[in-house]
Amino acid sequence: LGSGSITYLLGDFFSLCAGGRGSTTSPTGFDAIYDRGALVAIRPVDRIEYVATCREVLKPGGKILLLALEHDPFNNGRLGPPYCVTRADIDALYAADFDIKELDREDRMLTESHWKKKGASYFEEIVYVLEKK
Q1: CA terminus-to-terminus distance, the chain
Q2: What contacts 68, CB < 8 A, 6 or more positions away?
């Protein structure tokens, strides 16, 4: 952001940091993370590790643009993926290290009717910006 260059990494996200799932290489100092579908795809039991990795690789003052989803269980009782991530979940995962601001909330049932066919009575996409303290 501002320097004119963007770095993309391809691989196991959880291996970015020392103590991760297989790597001791820790690229630190990223200005921003764009999470469009990662947190909602990760099993809820793995969320703490995901957030810890984000925290470790992001510079102080760095930002996360996070798109989360809120919905009820699908027809078969499955909760995901995509998993529901509520504001309470976001606060529990990020509030200790990040300032959190909701930017937008959109009812996706109007444009993506397949969620209703899967049994959801509501399906919202929420955009947050999180700034590392």
Answers
A1: 18
A2: 39, 40, 85, 86, 89, 90, 125, 126, 127, 128
Cα 78 to Cα 115: distance, rounded to the nearest angstrom? 13
- 113 CB-side CA count, 13 A: 0
Token pair for 89: 């979940």
Is the pTM higher than 0.90?
no
Q: For the chain, 133 residues long, give each residue's pLDDT as a single digit of tens.
A: 456 677 777 778 877 775 444 443 445 578 999 999 999 999 999 999 999 999 988 999 999 999 999 999 888 888 889 999 999 999 999 999 999 999 999 999 989 989 999 999 999 999 999 999 9
Closest CA to 88 of 103, 100, 97, 73: 100
